[in-house]
Amino acid sequence: MNETxxxxxxxxxxxxxxxxxxxxxPPRKIxxxxxxxxxxxxNVDLTRAFLRAADDYSIGRIWTMAPLEDVDAMQxxxxxRFEFIAIPKWQELSSQASFIDDxxxxxxxxxxxxxxxxxxHAAPGTQKRMGMDLxxxxxxxxxxxxxxxxxxFMTHVGDPKxxxxxxxxxxxxxxxxxxxxxxxxLDRMLEQYPGRTHLGAHMGGSVEVLDALGDRxxxxxxxxxxSSATKWMVRGIAQQPVPRVREFFIRYQQRILFGSxxxxxxxYNYDHYASRYWVHQQLWExxxxxPSPIEDPDAPGGVAALKGLNLPASVLERIYRTxxxxxxxx
Length: 330
What we know:
Layout: E1 34-40, H1 44-56, E2 59-64, H2 68-77, E3 82-86, H3 96-112, E4 117-121, H4 124-130, H5 137-149, E5 152-156, H6 179-192, E6 198-200, H7 201-204, H8 210-219, E7 223-226, H9 230-238, H10 242-251, E8 256-257, E9 262-263, H11 270-285, E10 289-295, E11 303-307, H12 313-326
Parallel strand pairs: 1-2, 1-9, 2-3, 3-4, 4-5, 5-6, 6-7, 7-8
Antiparallel strand pairs: 10-11
Helix pairs in contact: 1-11, 3-5
């Protein structure tokens, strides 16, 4: 009996649906190194793999959220490469009181090691785990201590708009704020602390509602935003007319910092890291119009459209470098 061999099933990794060679680096629209203002790099050995992709894609200075315990080793291994963003120890959340006390001590420790920016993660799920939002007296303690130490502020407030609603991830019946309510508390924080630069992660959590984001930028001169969260940015931009989004980036070019939101981990390889930088390059520097090479469970069919904005070189210069250089001395 003749047996026909089964045809092997081609499995594409989630970071490379299109079979791209990420080692074949596309030419950059502008020369020079780029500052990535939003990453989660930690652990020296794991970070080396990430930096191979960062180096290939012209990433120079990197702002990162690493545990306080990793800062000394990272500074020694990569002198001058990282700006460390102060974060709490999330594992301490079992007790609100000990969590806050430990966070205050960590702010002291980060400041002593040269950190100038600290982050509040106030997305709906985090608020529920903490039992606190930005208005909570305990978080107000943290804000005031950070202010006294000279920190600037970073916040993650919004999540994708499609995650909010009665039949969505963030249901009002589960005690979550509405999408609009999330930003009301951010506005109160911006009003309360006008004397420091404030960075809104992931396009301020508002990439899908640029009119509201532009209004916030107009009202608060000390507010900046970063372009991090690759899949979210790709999906949110593709949902809107490209000329409208491009006009927004040009208008607010002095208020936007480049960021990737890459997370270092032992389950990631070079292609995973490079895929994010490849996609960001297409998004900001080209007129690419086609499928994203990265799987996205939140996109229809798991495949997001990638629509490049082809920003002018002068705008890229601001977003890639100058805004980060001026961030701490606006």
